[in-house]
Amino acid sequence: xxxxxxxxxxxxxxxxxxxxxxxxxxxxxxxxxxxxxxxxxxxxxxxxxxxxxxxxxxxxxxxxxxxxxxxxxxxxxxxxxxxxxxxxxxxxxxxxxxxxxxxxxxxxxxxxxxxxxxxxxxxxxxxxxxxxxxxxxxxxxxxxxxxxxxxxxxxxxxxxxxxxxxxxxxxxxxxxxxxxxxxxxxxxxxxxxxx
Length: 195
Description:
Blueprint: H1 3-14, H2 23-31, H3 35-47, H4 52-57, H5 63-72, H6 75-87, H7 91-107, H8 140-161, H9 165-187
Helix pairs in contact: 1-2, 1-7, 1-8, 2-7, 3-5, 6-7, 8-9
């Protein structure tokens, strides 16, 4: 899944009722697994001036970077964080850890070439999925459409929870961005034309 989709889906699934007060912790947990990738990209492009094709074709797959990405997507580490937070009765930390785990669980079935070792440090095993969240050659258009629907449903849930325009405006933007991106990358060439 794309990072904004994780944000919306995690907030919708984990942030209801009394957990709404911990929205920032849930949001951080939804974003945390992808933060090293953004740092990697900024380092490669802005500091090293690495060409885009090298960034995603070679540098991304270097073992050191992969280990960093995989540790931030580790289900066992998220579960340990969750157990410790629950033992200490730290609701925010528990929801942050649950959000990291949910992010990893949602990524697990839709990553192919960029599959993470979701069970580090216990195992180096990778699930290389037959489907991709982005690659049309591996059902990426269909998965991206399901993700777009999930984002739109999540936006509806979150919209109903908040009356603040400071919350609703970004939600509307995320829904429009999700629909627009799918249409641009996958749907535009497949929509019927009026002739």
